[in-house]
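re: ur msg from earlier - yeah i can do the pyridoxal-5'-phosphate complex, just paste it... oh wait u already did. ok heres what im feeding in:
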Amino acid sequence: MFSDRFDWDQGSNALSLLLEDKKRRGETVVDLTEANPTRVGLDYDVDDILAALSQPAAIKYAPDPRGLSIARQAIAKYYRERGAPIDTDALFLTAGTSDAYSILFKLLGNPGDKVLIPRPGYPLLSYLARLDSLRACFYPLRYDTAEGWSIDLDVLQALITPQTRAIVLIDPNNPTGSYVKQTEWKAIDAMCHRHDLALIVDEVFYDYGAGGAAGSMPAHQNRFESLTFVLNGFSKLMGLPQLKLAWIVVGGEFGLSSAARSHLETLLDFYLSVATPIQHAAERLLDRRHAIQRQILSRIEANSRFLEERITSTVNCRVLQREGGWYAVVDILDMVSDEVRVMHLLKHDNTLVHPGFFYDFNREGFVVVSLLPGEDIFRSGVSRLIRRYGHK
Ligand SMILES: Cc1ncc(COP(=O)(O)O)c(C=O)c1O
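and the outut:
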């Protein structure tokens, strides 16, 4: 009856069953996986957001497959302010970044074709590829205690076959928090150019550099030879995932990017999935992004500092280097498996963390925590984690 697209095991796993059970019994669980910005006690200007969404102009339906010009101009202004000016004609709006991936996978791949995605990385991505009948192949990020994370360019190159259509870079990557380095940009642009691959760059966490650090947004500066698609949206940039506004910026080689723009316009015309009120609200909301970004950044910094302090009091745990994003990776040296650890923590300490295997780490021992929870909640969860698994 149904297609093979979602024939993976969709049953509840032991962890989610235990969590449901605890919630049913009314137990309070300290959730260190919480990454929904609207549920962590941030102070949103509710009246202003609602006023921006209720402009009279939003009552008129006059769709443009690329997105309304007023919204695309607002987004172009954001890039100008970031020092990476773009052309509004290069912008295409979507209802979320997942939606943008889906459109690009339709644009670039035939059924069975491959996209290369980072490992460890964003768990949804391989499923998104699969739902569009593509195969996701993983290229590894390597960790070095002194240098931090880097892309294994040799393996990436070796994974390219005639069926490969695109390389996905997440800048900074989720959950490793690593930005793409200058040498990596150069090498990957050349690889894509040489093999006729598109480069998809996901910048949803871009504005959340640790200690003010950030990458250099080179994909926007028309320095790339390969066809590039840069993704971002309100979900992380504004901390407003429910408003469902994201976008694709098309760049790179002129002939290819012109053809891609024309195809994207055709594709998006079939869906017209972005609601009108959010497009009219975009400029007003983007102008106020610093208010929410400041709160998110200060939350991340405070939680990250606490985590570092507590971890240094142990001899068997370390926090991996983080350049940006909303997550921290803790490496725990002991003989406990990931599965046992996360179950045990939830069962006995009422604390929920992500196991490393959720993000496809190459070995056991990693725990991923969101840095967004309120500071008291975060401190309590981290203290329980360390009490249970940290050795003095
Ligand atoms: C790397 C990355 N890209 C995209 C998304 C999803 O964004 P959206 O809510 O716009 O679909 C996430 C969500 O966590 C993410 O981690």
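cool cool. Residues 12-43+290-389 form a domain with the Aspartate Aminotransferase, domain 1 fold (CATH 3.90.1150.10). ping me if u need the other ligands too
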